[in-house]
Recover the amino acids of this structure.
């Protein structure tokens, strides 16, 4: 272990046990004076049960309103190397694919100009660089752009879009999440770098309802792959599962279908697709025998958020099915209409989900020019909060 | 009123920011709404977007984060 500038008995406790430890990981970079002071400051917080970070302010690179998150210590005299400890978000490649050369380039830039600590990847999806000084921001930015990288979003802007690695690695992808993610990232560069919204706006794209990027809970606009024809069944493979005897198809597949639409008579599996809610359960447990249908596209949901100003929200369906093909003109028209309305009428720090709750989904749909559909429910089998005049 | 350009709107926004400095923080949309009110049909959201970009790129303004993102005068401008 490197010689410690500060004793950290409380933090050391967090290294015990078989699970990963952030203290262990931070200590690997303890040769950096910033990291030493970070450990010292953190130990102090554990002793006093008080956070010692201040945030916000006037930090960034020229021309951009996002990508740098200002962090300052409120004990600068005692821990001078973390008196400024800004976070930088770097826009990740869609699906998080890198060459080892690209990773080394990123790490080298960060070792030269920052603490060397990273978070790969942040919950936003970005490559997160943790801890640098204000004077290092422009040099980091110019080296990043020279290497082909750009900053991600922060503040009241469109946040860095993120996606699952769908078509590159997963047979269940119902649309090309990476192409879509890259397209919206490029299309909305202005919205990403120059904050002009009431608050943040996140777009996340998952290739199927397994929703590996948890878009339904974490993004203002969630794009989840789905299909509208029948689940594909390979009867021979179904037979193999039955013969292998490890899976009780009646109990564990048919019995756990949330809408009970799978019929299993011991030899043949049949699905009433008109009542399948695309939960992925049967496909997940019998991947060799079942797969999503062939008429694929996506469902667009709106309004999820974590509890910051108000409580947490899951997303609600906005567009039940859309083909989602390049150049995504239909999606972009929808985004433009929503942004226009929310940017103009949303209150400061009001997420689009809260905005919709305030003005009512009916009014929101009318304003953006979308017809209500029965799928627009808070959760399956709950009341649609639309009043139909039949 | 003469037709507005991104530059003329940028100048008007800059003047407004100076008026409000130290009194009230303004967001991009506050500036946009004020300009559309001031210039009427001679101004629109796109023009305001370009104007804010000019203010950022020539370093007269910068973004500040205080709970949300605000457009503020750049304290280092001209130094
Ligand atoms: C003032 C009168 C009533 C009110 C305010 C009311 C309200 C509700 C509410 C809020 C739910 C939950 C819906 C959801 O899942 O979100 C519900 C469910 C239900 N109500 Fe009522 N209800 C009323 C009268 C009735 C009557 C008279 C009947 C039958 C004759 C009825 C039958 C049902 C049934 C069967 C459900 C459950 C449906 C399901 O989710 O499977 N209700 N009701
Ligand atoms: C013969 C009479 C009725 C039958 C067989 C019947 C059957 C059902 C069934 C099967 C559901 C569940 C649907 C689902 O799975 O989502 C349901 C839902 C419901 N029913 Fe009925 N129902 C009857 C009469 C009524 C009456 C008279 C009322 C109210 C006055 C009522 C109110 C509701 C409500 C509020 C729901 C919940 C709808 C939702 O999911 O949002 N039902 N009913
Ligand atoms: S969300 Fe679906 S398509 Fe994307 S990686 Fe996960 S399982 Fe595969
Ligand atoms: S996907 Fe889900 S709802 Fe559809 S048939 Fe399979 S288990 Fe049932």
């Amino acid at each position: 272990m490197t010689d410690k500038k500060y004793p950290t008995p409380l933090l050391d406790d967090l290294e015990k046990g078989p699970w990963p430890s952030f203290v262990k990981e931070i200590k690997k970079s303890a040769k950096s004076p910033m990291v030493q002071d970070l450990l010292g400051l953190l130990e102090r917080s554990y002793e006093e049960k008080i956070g010692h970070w201040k945030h916000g302010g006037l930090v960034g690179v020229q021309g951009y309103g996002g990508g740098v998150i200002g962090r300052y210590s409120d004990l600068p005299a005692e821990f001078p190397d973390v008196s400024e400890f800004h976070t930088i978000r770097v826009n990740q490649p869609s699906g998080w694919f890198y060459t080892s050369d690209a990773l080394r380039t990123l790490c080298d830039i960060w070792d030269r100009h920052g603490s060397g600590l990273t978070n790969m990847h942040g919950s936003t999806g970005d490559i997160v660089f943790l801890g640098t000084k204000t004077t290092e921001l422009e040099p980091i930015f110019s080296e990043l752009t020279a290497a082909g990288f750009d900053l991600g979003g922060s503040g009241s802007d469109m946040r860095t879009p993120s996606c699952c690695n769908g078509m590159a690695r997963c047979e269940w992808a119902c649309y090309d999440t990476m192409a879509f993610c890259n397209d919206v990232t490029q299309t909305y560069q202005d919205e990403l770098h120059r904050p002009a919204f009431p608050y943040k706006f996140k777009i996340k794209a998952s290739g199927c309802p397994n929703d590996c990027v948890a878009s339904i809970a974490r993004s203002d606009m969630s794009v989840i792959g789905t299909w509208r024809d029948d689940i594909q069944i390979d009867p021979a493979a179904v037979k193999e599962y039955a013969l292998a005897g490890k899976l009780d198809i009646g109990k564990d597949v048919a019995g756990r279908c949330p809408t009970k639409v799978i019929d299993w008579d011991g030899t043949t599996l049949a699905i009433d697709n008109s009542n399948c809610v695309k939960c992925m359960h049967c496909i997940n447990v019998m991947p060799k025998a079942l797969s999503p249908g062939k008429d694929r596209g996506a469902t667009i949901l709106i309004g999820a958020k974590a509890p910051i100003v108000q409580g947490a929200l899951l997303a609600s369906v906005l567009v039940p099915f859309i083909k989602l093909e390049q150049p995504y003109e239909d999606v972009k028209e929808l985004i433009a209409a929503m942004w226009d309305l929310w940017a103009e009428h949303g209150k400061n720090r009001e997420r689009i989900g809260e905005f919709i709750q305030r003005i009512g989904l009916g009014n929101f749909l009318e304003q953006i020019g979308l017809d209500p559909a029965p799928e627009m429910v808070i959760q399956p089998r709950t009341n649609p909060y639309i009043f139909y005049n039949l | 009123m003469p037709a507005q350009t991104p530059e003329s709107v940028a100048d008007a926004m800059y003047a407004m920011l100076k008026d409000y400095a130290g009194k009230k923080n303004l967001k991009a949309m506050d500036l946009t709404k004020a300009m559309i009110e001031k210039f009427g049909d001679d101004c629109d959201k796109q023009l305001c977007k370009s104007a804010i970009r000019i203010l950022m790129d020539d370093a007269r303004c910068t973004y500040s984060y205080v709970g949300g993102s605000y457009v503020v005068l750049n304290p280092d401008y001209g130094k």
Notes: Chain B touches chain A at residues 27-29, 32-33, 45, 49, 52-53, 56-57, 59, 62-69, 72, 75 (CB under 8 Å). The beta strands of chain B are 61-66, 68-73. The helical segments of chain B are 6-20, 28-39, 45-57. Chain B has one domain: 6-73.
